[in-house]
Amino acid sequence: MSRPLAPGAPEVPHDHPDAPETDLRPIADAVAEHGAAGFVAVGDRFADDLRYLSRFGGPDRDYAVVVTPDRAALTAPGLFDEQAHREFVDGAPGDGIAREVRTEKQGDPAGVRGAAVLDDLRNDAGDPDSQTVLTPASIPHDAALYLEDAGYDLASTTAVADARERKTEAELACLRRVQAVTCRGMARAEAVLATAEPAGDDLLFDGEPLTTERLRREVDVEMARHGIRSAGNTVIGAGQTAADLHYTGIDHVSPGETVLLDVSPRGPHGYYGDLTRTFAVASEGGWERRAFVAVERAHGTALDHVEAGVTAGTVHEEAAAELTAHGFRIDSPEIGFTHGVGHGVGVSLHEGPSLRADTPLEPGNVVTIEPGVYDADTGGVRIEDLVAVTENGYERLATYPVRFTPVPPA
Amino acid sequence: MSRPLAPGAPEVPHDHPDAPETDLRPIADAVAEHGAAGFVAVGDRFADDLRYLSRFGGPDRDYAVVVTPDRAALTAPGLFDEQAHREFVDGAPGDGIAREVRTEKQGDPAGVRGAAVLDDLRNDAGDPDSQTVLTPASIPHDAALYLEDAGYDLASTTAVADARERKTEAELACLRRVQAVTCRGMARAEAVLATAEPAGDDLLFDGEPLTTERLRREVDVEMARHGIRSAGNTVIGAGQTAADLHYTGIDHVSPGETVLLDVSPRGPHGYYGDLTRTFAVASEGGWERRAFVAVERAHGTALDHVEAGVTAGTVHEEAAAELTAHGFRIDSPEIGFTHGVGHGVGVSLHEGPSLRADTPLEPGNVVTIEPGVYDADTGGVRIEDLVAVTENGYERLATYPVRFTPVPPA
């Protein structure tokens, strides 16, 4: 029971890709390099670092992942033992790290359990004299205190965030499918906009004035058909609310104004898509058209600079220069180009690398390219694609046409 | 373009309720009682405590909420100033707490910004001599260290978790609508099961063998039509995978086996629904039927005991006694009734109160009632409703029939 889509949306395979496996070697190497006893992370299934490290979609309660130079353990409630084995242990990659699930001490806090498991694992691996444990800086404070109570000194590490910036082929497969479904959601919204009828200040669709909420439901239903869910952030603004970076409210859509749709759903293994298009129905030109032309050029210019080895911040600077050349401000937090041109995407919607960083882009980085200009009195225009950095340029993870005037289904 | 539903699903109003307002008085009172300088919480828009305290659907980056006995502040990036005002300041309840948004020091970590804002607010309110700051125990460790660097001693507080257990009428309105939509998702799955045709080991639907993933997409699409999104945890298992508490994988559905659907989507203001039903198509009786009868009785018995003032754990004990009487084990983590009979639901899917606690139920608690029995070799049966505790009993937040054999659309 498909609904009509605007032309140009990709076909999407029915099945989800397999869950990626996580190479824990970079974490184990960080432990070895620091001469630490091990690494401990604590969080629940909503914590993206834990999701990445364990691939465990388990309970809402906190659990711990412990890594030493050659072993790794996940603490889980006994109820989730089988699931934890399936997701964390079975099919682990050939990274030389022996994985296990530990269900003892179930009533204790995850920090206590993590410390106890580390005491145990380090007998076989890790520096026997070290009392240092590496953790992400944002480990819950109570877990940090439990580790300190167990005799460990904490040192923060960026090893997990660094590893997450370089996607594997299995991760790219997840990102490609979710982004393709994102394109289909956009194509559904474009079809609705293209077939809506101007009537005074309204656009009529299904006999009712079209709202951003109706568009949002159309987008989210199309994605759900393919097993991809809105992450609660299907941003759709019209006119003044299109100038709001993250508008998820209810606004009427009027002829002529910019309609900005920024769609970033999440796939079953936690990977996000991220796609923005901006349309105007029955536009008379003016600011909306000028802004669209400028942003489309900036988008192309930014993409032209994406390549392994290029300093990330260059991509932002080039987009900014193009927008300046078109007469838009880049120096204000309120008007013009007010944000960075892009960010990494993975199991978090925002992760490294930032396209304002002074570090070089690496193959396997997945970043948004999303220049935009805003005027709170008038509207906003943003165009965004999701690309993987390659040795010689980039791969667009899914393609969808860039159009100012929405095109109806064929 | 609605799809046929099994009979008995509630009608759902088109519009979402308004966002609830948070009474910060219990947090401010905790500050005053402890003679503390203030309260600080740090997290991003995915942190449920922050969502509750601020109602701010802002950036993925960490931000801080600071509360003193009569003032409260939200630190936000300048880009989100307008949204933060709209969501945190405008329409604040009459709790006597003056709210403001602070955008200074944008580049600094949220813990640094929280400490600076607290320094400022405490000049006007709070104990001028105290260096104690109250925080949730799970505040990110780096934020805790920044607060300590700023001269504060940390003391953990359960004030936020405690406040969240007592829902306001506006919160109940959110929960009712999301639960009603959850029922419609279930009714769509029941309709699919009722119209699928047994063919050997398969159930054919749309000419293809029915899978848990197909059922999941049908449920999620129906909910998306009403603006409610799957939170990535539409649990559907069949046969052995029905014995898996949180099965979200792909399994074939066969005639006779139990099909367990546990649906817990999230509404636009962050509130969850939670509903479980278990069906069997063309059942020949046996374990599946006996388990269903026992669980249905336990569900009714548990509900009969829900009332303000009753010790929460009583509800669990009564359900367990009923299941014991039907010959099911309650003492194993692997077979029979392996989990608690219920938990609180709000902006987290699992929050207080637990129905194993020795504290009395209070009016405004919203809890699941979800007895179940499992046999990893055969299947699982669980029946779950979401109820609000009242002075004299409970209100089911939305109703949906309990049926073993799925019923087709009228």
Automatic annotation (TrEMBL), chains A, B:
- Where does this protein have coiled-coil stretches? none
For the keyword S-adenosyl-L-methionine, the answer is: no
- Supply the source organism for this entry: Halolamina pelagica
Where on the tree of life does the source sit, at the highest rank? Archaea
Among SUPFAM superfamilies, the record links this protein to: Creatinase/aminopeptidase
Return the Basic and acidic residues bias intervals.
12-23
Locate the region Disordered: 1-23
Gene3D superfamilies from the UniProt entry? Creatinase/methionine aminopeptidase superfamily
Pfam families linked: Peptidase_M24
Protein name according to UniProt: Xaa-Pro aminopeptidase
The family note in this entry says: Belongs to the peptidase M24B family.
- Which positions make up the signal peptide? none
Q: Which InterPro entries match?
A: Creatinase/aminopeptidase-like (IPR036005), Pept_M24 (IPR000994), Peptidase_M24B (IPR050659), Peptidase_M24B_aminopep-P_CS (IPR001131)
Where in the numbering of this chain does the Peptidase M24 domain appear?
174-391
UniProt GO molecular function? aminopeptidase activity; metal ion binding
Q: Which keywords label this protein?
A: Aminopeptidase, Hydrolase, Metal-binding, Protease
